[in-house]
Design goal:
TIM Barrel, 8-stranded parallel barrel, disordered N terminus, alpha/beta
Length: 550
């Protein structure tokens, strides 16, 4: 393709598109964004160029549209149109070639779309990049286009970006919700405050190796001690940190502490949750705070019939939670829900609405929340359903500040099934070398190491490879202390193997493992720490998790 060795690239950022900053990619090069806006070219030649416009799909997935102005091998002007999703510092654009268009009058009905080939832009910094092109058989045969490899690009001039590229544009936030059944609790929104909020989701993910759940405590129905655990203390969180965990997920209930008519949360409960969050932050551990099962008002009602009321409640609760915690720094992350029960595409659309209400409510409170990392859950936090139904992240006013969440209890026969069911027995044993010769009825028939690898690898490809961190928000296998003798010993060894393997393979795939500790110390429980004596109870599982996190 004579002349394609001569290129100019004009990156024109679309206003209001949500690209409001340039995070660093894993290799140190900046993610594609408005800071690259301008004209790029090869200084030895001129006359050709691209326009690239950033935007997002309705689900918030970053997209770019490329208009390529070029020539055929006889010098006639042509153009191709491409589309692709930015990934770190790279953009792959699949081009199409409209044939039959002309300047002036032409019949649109005669225009055809032919394959135009693949273009790849890669930026080493905000001033330099390269371009590669693989022509399609159509462009090669019809126009004589040839491949281009590592064509150097330099920035010629800047195109000023809107101020919203540096600071989230919250102008679309409303101060009232006329269509809501609850009052507007975002009554004092603050100006965006970047202080202490410089890290992206990927940055924060890089600081987490092994997380721990404060389970069956602040989310307990009936109060903090309603499910048998004592009140949470600063000493417990200090023990968690000293034992080797470096982050904490705090499940919390809110609905039982709110006025049913107005959704106003009891201020004393907001203060208590903040006190516990501060315990973890004081130990230097990042925190994920969520709306957990909470009586099932959202989790069990991901339906079109409940969408309007639950969206309003989601907005009202998160306006209050976000406002109360607004001054805390980036180490606090918010999570929309727990295990929302969406089973199909229709319910997935409702779940997106719940997540969007969460994102919008938090962002619109402003202050540090304008930059806070937010976590959204896949359907049922099930890996296979998430891979099938998830089509993109919710829309956000800035990139790189969201994580996805799934949970891992595979195989359930081993992790939690207590009694035999028509579809299968409980598994007491798990993993290579851990099958029983004397109790074969309770050996695993599925879900061992190869299944772990496959499932976690799915989430790496779905999210991590696209620059979206993934939290494995819960994983554990309950102990079965009703067993005795060699059976019990083999079972406990199997649990340790499972915990170590899931921890390690999560990290291998770029996922962030958070062990589910429900505080229970008996049969069918999974507590590591004795919260009454503030001591380590299950050293075998703690050591297994630490080995997996090395």
């Amino acid at each position: 393709m004579t002349g394609v060795s001569l290129l100019a690239l004009a990156l024109i950022a679309g206003a209001g598109n949500g690209f409001v900053g340039n995070a660093q990619a894993a290799d140190g090069a900046p993610d594609i964004g408005p800071a690259h806006s301008g004209s790029w070219y090869n200084p030895s030649q001129n006359g050709h160029g691209f326009s690239l416009e950033f935007g997002q799909t309705v689900n918030g997935t970053p997209q770019a549209v490329v208009y390529w102005y070029v020539y055929d091998d006889r010098g006639n002007p042509l153009f191709l149109v491409g589309q692709g999703a930015p990934e770190g510092n790279r953009l792959k654009a699949e081009f199409v070639s409209p044939v039959g268009m002309a300047f002036g009058d032409f019949d649109p009905a005669t225009v055809t779309r032919e394959p135009g080939g693949l273009g790849v832009f890669e930026f080493s910094d905000r001033e330099h990049g390269t371009f590669d092109y693989t022509p399609s058989s159509f462009t090669a045969d019809t126009w004589g286009h040839q491949p281009v490899h590592d064509l150097a690009l330099s920035k010629l001039f800047d195109v000023p970006a809107p101020a919203s590229f540096d600071t989230p544009d919250l102008s679309a936030c409303t101060t009232s919700a006329d269509d809501s059944i609850y009052p507007d609790y975002n009554v004092q929104p603050a100006a965006p405050d970047r202080t202490g909020m410089g890290s992206t989701a990927t940055d924060l993910a890089g600081r987490i190796r092994l997380g721990w759940n404060l389970g069956n405590a602040l989310e307990a129905i009936g109060g903090e001690t309603g499910w048998g655990n004592p009140p949470v203390t600063r000493e417990l969180l200090r023990l968690v940190k000293e034992s080797g965990f470096d982050a904490v997920r705090i499940p919390a209930s809110w609905d039982q502490y709110a006025d049913p008519a107005t959704a106003k949360i009891d201020p004393s409960w907001l203060h208590r949750v903040r006190e516990v969050v501060q315990y973890a932050l004081d130990e230097g551990m990042p925190v994920i705070l969520n709306i957990h099962w909470d009586g099932g008002w959202l989790e069990n009602n991901v339906t079109a019939a409940q969408q309007a009321g639950n969206t309003a409640k989601q907005r009202a609760y998160w306006q209050q939670i976000a406002t109360h915690f607004r001054d805390l720094d980036e180490r606090l992350m918010f999570a929309s829900a727990n295990e929302p029960n969406a089973e199909d595409a229709e319910q997935m659309a409702v779940l997106y609405a719940y997540h969007q209400a969460f994102v919008d409510a938090v962002r619109c409170t402003g202050g540090r929340n304008a930059f806070r990392v937010l976590v959204v859950q896949g359907p049922r936090t099930d890996i296979e359903l998430t891979d099938e139904l998830w089509t993109g992240m919710p829309f956000d006013v800035l990139p790189g500040r969201m994580m996805a969440e799934v949970h891992f209890y595979t195989p359930w026969n081993f992790a939690g099934l207590e009694e035999a069911q028509p579809w299968g027995n409980p598994f007491y044993y798990w993993g290579a070398g851990n099958h029983s010769a004397t109790d074969p009825a309770h050996n695993p028939t599925w879900g061992e190491e190869d299944a772990v690898d496959a499932l976690l690898g799915t989430m790496r490809r779905k999210f991590v490879d696209r620059g979206i961190p993934v939290v494995v928000g819960e994983y554990a296998a309950t102990r079965r202390t009703h067993l005795e003798g060699d059976d019990l010993a083999l079972h406990l060894r199997s649990r340790a193997r499972w915990v170590e393997y899931v921890t390690r393979q999560s990290l291998v795939n770029g996922l962030l493992p958070f062990y589910w500790d429900n505080g229970g110390l008996g049969n069918f429980a999974c507590g590591i720490f004795d919260r009454n004596t503030v001591s380590v109870f299950d050293r075998q599982i703690l050591d297994a998790a630490l080995r997996g996190a090395r």
